[in-house]
Amino acid sequence: MTRPKSNTSPPLNVAGKRTSSPFDLDLLRGWSEDRDPALASPHALSALATLHQLDANHTPIASYPIFGPAILLGRFHSQHSPVDLLLDNLQDHQTYRLGSPHAHLELLPTGQWVVQALAPQTPTRLNGEPIDTLAMAREVRAGDRLTLGVTTFDFEPHDITLDDHQRQLDRLLDSCDPPALFLMRSGAPSGPYHPLDPRRPLTLGRSYPPAGTLPNSQHWPSRPDHFWDLSGLPDVERKFVAFQHARLIFKDQRWHIEPLSTRQRTYVNRIPINVPTVLEPGDELGLGSALFHLQLPTTRARPRRNITPPRPIDWSEGRPPAEDPER
């Protein structure tokens, strides 16, 4: 049986559902957001694989393309680091049984896909057989069924090699003159980017009304002149982005990121930061659940920075490690 090509459109794709809304929020609020449709556009790369979500009758009801060779998947929780693939088409009882992250999925140079369970308090099963948390990675083949919590997915690898993937990625990153910040989705830069000017700090955030439009907003700052408005992101990413979330600054011949929001977290390589932080070529920046790739002139075609799966937290131990003074 021949595998389908990776650019074959799946019958159902949750990405098409993420931006629709039955309400006109601009009308209800009394002010409008500047939504760039490119931020929710289809991915620029070919998918390496697809997870097809199944219902109780094992009928596909949604599809999640995978564009990166090594991804963390699950749900986003601000106390944990962002994940590459957000499984956002689930019902509440399914979402509550997902880890943050839940599993690590990787395409090896041999062409094999492997999965590692990361969530100690909720099950991961391969073809109905439980996978122990942090046990040796298990191979996943075409047609295998992967159960994360209480939701089952059919795994479909595509006919694209790691070399083909890298060539597509190189072309995408070479499509602009660095430095630039690329939006990432499902494990790889997805296409949209914003150029970086060392002479002008870039503020990242989303549209907000002028001062005085909302109650107690008389002292809100005006919108910066050099601003990347991320209001057009799918809601699963947009809702965790603050009005003024972070600022990129070039000083002392290095790029720095400065978190501006006290409510929504900023991450560098999945680690939360609270102070201005020096950036390295190829760093991954997280604004809530949205991820970005920093492309600098020294890395026109980069291998992706390895993101180590985090140590799972066993909540039965007491307080989270980050809040335990004895750790």
Automatic annotation (TrEMBL):
InterPro entries: FHA_dom, SMAD_FHA_dom_sf
Domain FHA: 202-273
Coiled-coil segments on the chain, per record: none
Bias (Basic and acidic residues) ranges: 314-327
Residue numbers spanned by region Disordered: 301-327
Name of this chain's protein: FHA domain-containing protein
